[in-house]
Structures are given as C-alpha cells and as structure tokens.
Design a protein that fits this description.
heterodimer, A: 323 residues, mainly alpha, B: 429 residues, alpha/beta, Rossmann fold, four-stranded parallel β-sheet, 11 helices, 17 strands
Chain lengths: 323, 429
C-alpha cells in the first residue's frame, strides 16, 4: 500500500475511534475498544523487544503489572492520575534497568526462560503482598465516566505507535534489528549489542507500564496480582504473531482480530478460547509467518498485480525469517 | 529471528497454554465474557390486566442478568446458585409472573445466566455487556472475589445487585448503595461457631485447642482475626494460626504444624480447590482433628469424592431443607427429582434472592433501577425460603446461620439444635 494511502487510512481509523469515544454511550462497545487499544499498546511494546530486537521475553506481564500496581496504589490514595502514571513509568524504568543487566546476559531460550521465571515469581509475590481486591471507592464508581479511560488508553496506544515508528526508522532501531538478525555480525560492525538490547528492554517495559496504567485507571475492581498474570504476556505475543511480528501495524491488526474474534466466539466453545487462539497462533507462525500483515500485503500485491512490496515479505514467505 | 527462537516460543507457549487451561488464578481469559447463556423464561403468563387499556410499551419480560461461575474454581458452588435462580424464576412464572404497576400487567421473568469462569475480571466485563440489554437487576455468583468485582461494577452501572455465598463484611463497608447480600457475614459466623460448640459439646469434652488455616484474601484477613477474638471470648486457645496463598497446592507444612500443635478444632475458609487439597493431604498424612469447620469448600457436592478424608467436616451456609422454612419442600423435592439428592445448601440462598427481587419490583411498580434499588433496601420482614428478610443500611440482612455436618455422604443439619436433623458426630470420624 502506498505510504500516503496508509497514512490516510490510519488517520481515518483514528478519527473513527475518537468520534466513537465522544459519541457512543454503549458500554459494551466502549469496553471492547478500550480492551483492543490496551492490548494493542501492550503488544506493540512487546514488539519492540521481541520484534525489533529479537529478544523473546515471556515475562512482559511483570512490567505491565508494575505499571498498573503503582498507578492504582498512588491514584487511589489521592495522587493525581498524571503524577501516578509518571511515577509508575519511572519505577518501571528503574526496575527494568536493574533486571535487564543480568537478564540480557542470557540468550535465546535462556532469556525466554529467565524472563518467564521472573514473570511467575513476580506474579506470586504480588499475590502474597496484595491479597485483597482493589476496588474504586463508591463515589468514584457512581461518577465513573468511560471517556477518561477511553482517551487515556488511546493516548497510550498512539504514544506506543509513535515510539515504534521512530524506532523503526532510527539509528537505534536499526541497531536493534541488526542485533536481532545476527548479534555477532552486528557486534563485529560496531553495534553495541548489549546497549541496544538494554534500550529495547527498558523502552518496551516502560511502554508496557503505560498500558498497565491505563488498565489500572479503567478497571473498577481487580486483584492486584491479576495484572501480573502470564495471560497478559501470552495475549501480547499471540496478537503480535497473528498480526505480524516486527511490523508497526501487526500488533494493531492482531489486537482487533483477537478481541473481535473472542467476542464473537460461540458460547459453546468459549471455555476453550485459549486453546483456539493457541492453535491459531501455531498455524499462523507455521503457514503465514508474517501474520495478517503479510497476508494483507500478499492480497494487495495480487489484486494490484504487483510483486510483494519488499524483500522482508519475500523472506518471511519463505519461512526463513519472521521480519 | 532464528528458527530456534521460534521453536522456543512454540514450546513455551504450549506450556503457557497448558497452564492457562487450568482456568484458575489468571489462567482464564481476562476480559472476554464467556457466555453460556441459559435463558429461562416461561410462556408469557396469562395476563392479569388491571386496567382497561394495556400500555403499549410494556416489555415482553423482566430480564435478570445472572453472572455465575459455571466453570473454574467456583464452578461447584456456581452450579448450586444457578439451580436456585432457575427454580425460583420458573416457580414465579408458573404462578403468573410479576405484577408491574407501571405497565398494568404481570410479566414473566427472563433469566439470562452467563458464565464468568470464576474470574472477577470476566464478571465485570459480562456485567457491562448485560447493562446494555435492559436488565432490571443483577444476581451474582459464588465466593467473595466475583462478588467484589460484581458489587463494584453494579455500583458504577447504577443497577441493583443481589448476591449470595459471600460472607465478607468489608464488601458492605465501602458505601455501595446497589449491593445487597442476605447471607451470614464474618462477625456472625465467627460468633456462631463457638456458640454451637458450646451448645453441642459438654464442657469437659470441648476442643479447646483451636487451629486456623487462613487464606490470604480479603475474607481470610477479616474472618481469621474474628475467630481468634471469639475463641478467646469463649475460653478457647488459638494454638496455631497459619496463612496460605489461595491456589497453593502443598499444605503439608501447615498440616504438620497443626498436628504438632495438637490442634483439636481446625477452622478454615478455603475455596473449593484449596479445601480439597488440604483435606486430601490431611488424609494422606493420617491426621484429622476432632472438630473441623470448612467454610465454603465443603459446600459443593463433589466434597464427597474425598471419602473418609472429608467425612465429618462441618460447614456453614444460611439454609438447609431441615429448617422447614416456607417453600422449602417444593424446592427440595424438585432437587431430589432432578439431582438425586436433597437440595444443596446454597440453592436456597440463591432462590431467596429472586424472591426478594420480585417483591421489590412489585412494590416499586416499575422496572426503573433506582426505584427497584430503593424497594430492595426497604425490604422489611419479607418471608422467603431462608427466613424473614429485612435489610440493614449496609445491604446485609439478619439471616439464620445454621451449621451442617457431612455424615455418610449426606449433609445433616446439626445447628440450631431445635431444628437438627442429626446429632453432631464428635470427635470427627
């Protein structure tokens, strides 16, 4: 798709989303859109680490949960929301930097297992330290307005996409991708692999914390450790791969597909939705490694009688590389 | 990205899928309503029009949104709740429906039951969805976590919410106006257990050495200290007070500690999976104290699967067919016919919620949420299957707090003594 057309399509979607937030009073529709935007933001943040820098983290929920926890605790105790969010992101940046130093010494499966262990440990610890449910006060509930959480989540998503776009075309981003393709080769050409992985890790975690802050602001009642659940990591990875890993639009497409698909899933098989999407994930990875993004580009190329637009898709089609 | 990384992802995601499939803590999906709609409606009852001209805008039915855990950790209790709702709705529809003055006619109830998979986050999501479907009120599920989410969501949506099977007093201390729960709360429960022990066991034989297994939840933090306080007030000594995280799978250390402390009365409030694990492991370790109170986990029929390990435990719910309250016989007989056993304890509690709601609608004369809420709050001495109901300002109500014991696979009423269907088996087998 030509660049101008893509920008135009993006602006139209943004206008529709903004209009819906201003006009609609249908709670179910607003909830679905908020969930979609939140998941898209979380998935995009994972995509920076997993898609751009090639580091498969299975503990991403730890940073989403940390952002949610700090925001919620400070906000419900009287701090202005904006300051609570800033504090949450700052805390997460520090935590990610501290954790990243030892964690990024691991490679491949060891990094994945290390982050998985981190995520599970943090989940259990949060459950032990904050066993009680976190509910908004009665007065806040009675005055609850979807508009605030809606536009906050939209803002978080836009920020995540903007950061991803900047990275994609920046020197730092190119360095990350070089590390992803071949860490030794990148190092040999002067790229500081560890520094680039650390930037990706911290940036990705900070954006995940922002998504967590949106969750904390949106949710009327939840157990604090729920925000640390592996399900958040699972869903983020799922939608990134379904949408197209390493792309900007992939996590957005994947999130829309996931939330709408889940909502439309027949009641009879709803109990198995995790299995359904898990199988779908494997099918996509094996048959369309570039996800919906690649599929739509193939379709566009076919309808416009052109070859796939760039080498990336060709490589992905061959199954050699995902991005 | 290398193929190896891809394989890593596939392998670990398979593990995650397996973990998520368990459906408990964080395993279930977080936001998506898993709808298992069980819509119970009767044929429109014969209209008992009281005015010459029926208003045109009368709805076809009165919709009640029931969000119940039919899968996941609380599924056993949720099944009882659902039966209670279905029985009550069908009985009321068979009797002609609910008179709504605003429309000048009686309307049938329509129960929309949806499964929240025991996940409080799904509870919220489903309730939001139901809010857009013209329901008059919510009726809730089983266990404090889902009620905590449900009560907050109802408050935000401005829709009345009636819930059974939650004993957490703290839920009623947040200033919520739309949450009503005629179910024994922690302070009453803590007092009643010692009242029962003193009433049923001669002074010299009482289990004076008390042990507490307290789950690390809101309810655990509330009830545990109350048990300690009441124990001291009644001359009992708390020799062990252990806390564990819900979802734990190994309770060996606290069981051995209880055994070492020579606990004679073990008080616990586990969710079903934890309670099963605790008593299974106690059976394996060959230890069980003379008196065992298991609040909530032992309510579910599958408790009998524990066999000898689960025999003789005492449970506490606000209803038992043996109490002989109005309407009990019909409900109990239907339960026997359909399930092959007397009505489970929580069935009556759920049944009563529908009775309360119907009474409130008839008094309000409208389906307006605030009017129905006000009418529920004004409920005063309403005769229900769990006894007369009068709501306090905080949404709780004075209700009976009978205790039962699992004896030979049956649930026998042991307290209050004047209604008991069996004597307390003590020491526990």
């Amino acid at each position: 798709m030509p660049r101008a057309a893509a920008i135009a399509a993006g602006l139209v979607v943004l206008a529709v989303v903004i209009s819906t937030g201003l006009i609609s009073s249908n709670q179910h529709v607003l909830t679905l859109i908020i969930q979609t935007m939140m998941l898209a933001a979380l998935a995009s943040s994972w995509n920076i680490l997993g898609g751009f820098a090639g580091q498969i983290s299975l503990g991403h929920a730890a940073f989403f949960g940390l952002g949610a926890l700090v925001t919620r605790e400070l906000w419900l105790n009287g701090m202005p929301l904006s300051l609570a969010v800033v504090a949450a992101v700052a805390t997460t940046i520090v935590a990610a930097a501290v954790v990243g130093v030892p964690m990024l010494r691991f490679r491949d499966i060891y990094f994945a297992i290390g982050t998985l262990a981190l995520g599970v440990a943090v989940f259990i610890t949060a459950g032990n330290l904050w066993p009680g449910i976190s509910s908004m006060p009665a007065e806040a509930l009675r005055n609850y307005d979807f508009t605030g959480p809606y536009f906050m989540t939209l803002g978080v998503l836009v920020a995540t996409v903007v950061v991803s776009l900047w990275l994609k075309h920046s020197k730092v981003g190119l360095g990350m991708m070089a590390v992803r393709e071949d860490e030794e080769a990148a190092t040999a050409t002067g790229v500081n692999a560890f520094a680039h992985k650390m930037i990706a890790f911290v940036l990705s975690s900070a954006l995940a914390a922002l998504a967590g802050a949106a969750f904390a602001y949106f949710s009327v009642s939840y157990f604090p450790n729920f925000a640390f659940s592996v399900i958040w990591t699972f869903e983020a990875i799922l939608v990134v791969f379904i949408g197209g890993v390493g792309t900007i639009v992939g996590p957005l497409l994947g999130s829309v597909f996931f939330i709408i698909g889940r909502d439309a899933l027949p009641a009879e098989i709803n109990e198995f939705q995790v299995v359904v999407f898990g199988v779908l994930f494997m099918v996509v990875v094996l048959l369309i490694p570039g996800g919906l993004t690649e599929a739509s580009q193939r379709l566009y190329a076919r309808t416009s009688r052109r070859k796939p637009p760039n080498a990336y898709e060709s490589k992905a089609t061959k199954g050699k590389e995902l991005v | 990205m290398r193929k190896r990384s891809l394989l890593i992802v596939l392998a670990v995601m398979a593990l995650l899928l397996a973990a998520c499939g368990n459906g408990d803590e964080g395993g279930a999906d977080t936001t998506q309503p898993s709808e298992e709609e069980v819509t119970t409606t009767a044929e429109a009852p014969e209209e008992t029009t009281t005015t010459d001209e029926e208003p045109v805008d009368a709805p076809e039915s009165i919709k009640i949104g029931a969000v119940v855990p039919l899968t996941g950790a609380f599924a056993g209790g949720g099944a009882q709740i659902e039966r209670g709702y279905v029985y009550a709705v069908e009985a009321i529809n068979d009797a002609g429906g609910v008179m709504v003055e605003e429309f000048g006619t009686a309307l049938p109830l329509e129960l929309d039951v949806r499964d929240d998979a025991s996940d409080p986050n799904q509870t919220t999501s489903i309730m939001d969805e139901l809010a857009g479907e013209d329901i008059v009120a919510y009726v809730g599920g089983f266990a404090t976590p889902v009620h905590a989410a449900g009560s907050a969501t109802a408050e935000r949506n401005g829709i009345p919410y009636l819930g059974a099977a939650t004993s957490t007093q703290a839920l009623h201390e947040q200033g919520y106006q739309y949450f009503f729960s005629p179910f024994p709360k922690s302070p009453d429960m803590a007092a009643t257990v010692f009242e029962m022990l003193n009433g049923l066991i001669p002074e010299g034989d009482r289990p004076l050495r008390v042990g507490i297994f307290q789950e690390a939840t809101d309810w655990g933090e509330e009830l545990g200290p109350l048990w300690v306080e009441e124990a001291e007030n009644n001359g009992y000594e708390v020799v062990l007070h252990e806390t564990y995280a819900p979802g734990s799978t190994d309770f060996t250390d606290i069981i051995l500690a209880a055994q070492a402390a020579d606990v004679q009365a073990l008080l616990s409030l586990p969710t079903p999976p934890d309670g099963f694990a605790i008593y299974q492991q106690m059976g394996e370790l060959g230890w069980k104290p003379p008196f065992n109170l298991v609040v909530r986990a032992a309510d579910v029929p599958t408790w009998n699967d524990l066999g000898e390990a689960g025999e003789g435990v005492v449970l506490s719910t606000p209803w038992h067919p043996g109490l002989g309250l109005p309407g009990t016989d019909e409900v109990n007989q239907r339960h026997i016919d359909e399930e092959g056993r007397p009505a489970d304890p929580v069935v009556g509690s759920a049944y009563a919620l529908i009775e309360i709601l119907v009474d409130a609608i008839e008094r309000a004369g409208t389906l307006d949420h605030d009017a129905v809420r006000d009418a529920i709050a004004a409920t005063d001495g309403l005769s229900t299957i769990i006894g007369p109901i009068t709501f306090r300002e905080d949404g709780t109500a004075e209700v009976p707090n009978p205790h039962m014991q699992r004896i030979g696979g049956a649930i026998e009423l042991i307290w209050p003594a004047d209604s008991a269907t069996a004597d307390l088996v003590y020491p526990s087998p």
